[in-house]
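Thread: sanity check for a docking pose with flavin mononucleotide

Original post by kr_44:
Hi all, I'm comparing my docking run against an independent structure prediction. Below are the sequence and the ligand SMILES. Could someone generate the full complex and paste the structure tokens? I mainly care about where the ligand ends up relative to the chain.
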Amino acid sequence: MNITKVIKARYSCREYKQNLLQAHHRMLLSQWLTTLTNGPFGTPIRLMLLASTPDDQQALEGLAAYGSVKNPQGFIVGAIENTPTSLEEYGYVVEHAVLKATELGLGTCWIGGIFTRSRFAQKIKLRENEVLPAIVSVGYETDYARDNFIRRAARGYARVPFEHLFFDGTFETPLSPDKAGIYAQPLEMVRLAPSASNKQPWRVVHHSQFWHFYLQRTKGYGKGSLLFTMLRLPDLQRVDLGIALCHFELTARELHIHGAWKHVDPQIATPENTEYIVSWQEF
Ligand SMILES: Cc1cc2nc3c(=O)[nH]c(=O)nc-3n(C[C@H](O)[C@H](O)[C@H](O)COP(=O)(O)O)c2cc1C
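Reply from moderator J.T.:
Ran it for you. Here is the predicted complex with flavin mononucleotide included:
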């Protein structure tokens, strides 16, 4: 896949055609999911595609994402071992699956809010040591969903400006695309990533061969907020961070930039509500 093209083509498609997923799409996507068995830090993950078929039109019975999407024809669902990094790793791996679905021409939408969690957990036979933080709906996009996206893309994707997300050495010094050099593109692909309620909590600080990734929590949203506590939602902003790592790494690799993820907190001063996650070290 040409990764930047695929990332720019992806959007949250919330209305699908009534058509079932075609057999070849089901097969290609399912096959791809079986290849994604570990997170970027080595945590085991299992993914599956749940979809209605001509022989089993009831396959999605009881599986619902209330208020989020209309006519989903399938869901990507995953189970990851519960480790300190499982939420970021889930975001990373499932986003890789989302990009594959996008490449196949399918519409997708991440759903971390309200869905029939226990029914999805039954389907994937969730084990005691595993978590299921979010799901992704899949189907053929309607013209209405596509037109909405094109209009939005023309307005600039509704994202925080580059210089507010990426920094040079310290959080005090914004980084311009020019100064980011060859990394401007991987960072731009981070900027275009999906995030829960479009909060875009990722921040990146560049220092020599390191790109340090941080989670800047949105006040009153996410972990500890009334909404998340009442609905018992997982810490979705950590899933967002994993999605950003996926976009960054896939784009860097396409540009033949070599590097790896390392936990090397530079201990620099951080703004309020901001925590270190991981760093990309260029070789
Ligand atoms: C972890 C995560 C959870 C999300 N949960 C929901 C959800 O429950 N319902 C929904 O309609 N959209 C959900 N979204 C989609 C975001 O609202 C969407 O990605 C964001 O608004 C940016 O829009 P875009 O994906 O079209 O670029 C979620 C996205 C992420 C990454």
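The chain has two domains: 3-147, 159-282. Hope that helps with the comparison, let us know if your pose agrees.
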